[in-house]
Design goal:
about 325 residues, 5-stranded mixed β-sheet, 13 strands, about 25% strand, binds oxa(dethia)-CoA
């Protein structure tokens, strides 16, 4: 049986860093509150004019270089994002044209913070079915664009960045399983209120921003991500304590700790980058993955559990050998 395997990773963050202390000067908050409630210490914010495709392109180039794959060899590009540069062409096509991969399929996957896991799961199927041999999967966001910088309940959380992986077929074990979930009953707990069809009127008036009932999101994220992690590990017959690494969605350190406890995986084997990056939505998992690959923590052949949770709600998990 042939697997889809990650053969290269890459990431990119904007140059500008916004610390908790910077935020103290902008809104009624404190470094202590942000650190203790979320784990975030600083985050990267896109410069004026810097877009999701810019960050995604940088991450893509790094992943292609790490994989030793030329853009012309790509069969498909899939981008998980909720903050596209344009309504269309999609971000995948913008990146395709810039890197010179013209002709291959390219599309975006709109699943909020779970966008990268959704994209990875789709890419994996194309490779296992033999319909694609080289697929670039990207998670890229500029969430700072739809945050109300006077709303302390959201602006301290969200940030910008991108991560990417290249997938290829392999006889050695790669992606073992992916599970995707969504539940629209929770659509009012985390959402962005404007869109092409519904209209941008409130956006034009400068009053439309991401809306979140954080406390409720927190509770359901812990419950569903714990269930998803337990289910995927059970199905694969792998005890959580045997995993080499969990690479979780970086939304809140307390959510990450709760899941690590539930699957009995010590925090020393959990990749945590939230202190540096904040919540970068669909970029969060591939960004954390690339950081841990490049600093040598994650090694070839190790077992990894990836998970993410976001607006919709959408969520998912992936189990793989790196
Ligand atoms: O990636 C998508 C998924 N998103 C998530 O998973 C996010 C999940 N939710 C969370 O991470 C947490 O709910 C938050 C970090 C958003 C909030 O933490 P919390 O412990 O749930 O705080 P809270 O909303 O219950 O607020 C507690 C207090 C409130 O004050 P009172 O009413 O107790 O006086 C808030 O007004 O903290 C206050 N507060 C703040 N204080 C200082 C809220 N935001 C801030 C702030 N600085 N930035």
């Amino acid at each position: 049986m042939s697997y889809a395997r990650i053969i290269g990773t890459g990431s990119a963050v904007p140059e500008r860093v916004l610390t908790n202390h910077d935020l103290e000067a902008m809104i009624d908050t404190s470094d202590e509150w942000i650190r203790s409630r979320t784990g975030i210490e600083r985050r990267h914010i896109a410069a004026t004019g810097e877009t999701t495709a810019d960050l995604g392109e940088c991450a893509a180039r790094a992943a292609l270089a790490a994989a030793g794959v030329k853009p012309q060899e790509l069969d498909m590009i899939i981008v998980g994002t909720t903050t596209p540069d344009l309504v269309f062409p999609n971000v995948g096509i913008l990146i395709q044209e810039r890197i010179g991969a013209n002709g291959c399929a390219a599309f975006s996957c709109e699943a909020a913070c779970a966008g990268f896991l959704y994209a990875l799961s789709v890419a994996e199927k194309f490779i296992r079915l033999g319909e694609a041999r080289r697929v670039l999967v990207i998670g890229a966001e500029t969430l700072s664009r739809f945050v109300d910088w006077t709303d302390r309940s959201t602006c301290v959380l969200f940030a910008d960045g991108a991560g990417a992986v290249v997938l290829a077929p392999s006889e050695e074990t790669g992606i073992l399983k992916t599970h995707l979930y969504a539940d629209g009953r929770y659509k009012d707990l985390l959402y962005f209120p404007s869109g092409v069809s519904k209209g941008f009127d409130s956006l034009k008036s400068g009053k439309d921003f991401v809306q979140m009932r954080g406390n409720e999101v927190f509770r359901i994220a812990v419950r569903e991500l714990s269930r998803a992690a337990v289910r995927i590990l059970d199905e694969a017959g792998i005890p959580g304590s045997d995993l080499d690494w969990m690479v979780p969605h970086q939304a809140n350190l307390r959510i990450i700790e709760a899941i690590s406890k539930r699957i009995e995986l010590p925090m020393e084997r959990v990749v945590v980058t939230i202190q540096e990056h904040g919540n970068t939505s669909a970029a969060s998992v591939p960004l954390a993955l690339d950081v841990a690959v490049r600093d040598g923590r994650i090694q070839r052949g190790q077992s990894l559990l990836l998970e993410a949770f976001g607006g919709g709600f959408t969520w998912g998990a992936a189990l793989l050998r790196f």
